[in-house]
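**Archive record**
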Amino acid sequence: MPTHGRATEVWLKPVFIAKAGREAELQEALRSLQTLSRNDPGCLEYTVFSDGERPGTFVLFEGWVSREELEAHNQEVHVTAFVEAVEPLLAKPFTVTPLVPLVIPPRTP
């Protein structure tokens, strides 16, 4: 989870929506990507969720130590191959939303 202490951290929320009948294939591709990406340098978090209210919709929550680490991750073969392989499985192109943790000031006694 966000550390709230590193200004360089990058947090993202990609969302993937499967074509009807391709849900299981997309889920498996995301599961494999999750396993491989968690080992990439600078990875703080990389977890895929199934949207409980929208079948076939998957949400990825990912965090990186820095933009440079994210960019290196995006150049990894397992990422570039994933992007190419899932294109025909998607109902529409996936979206990526940048997330910024809210900084909560410390309590004063």
About this structure: The first strand starts at residue 10 and ends at 17. The mean pLDDT is 92. Residues 34 and 81 are 13 Å apart (CA to CA).
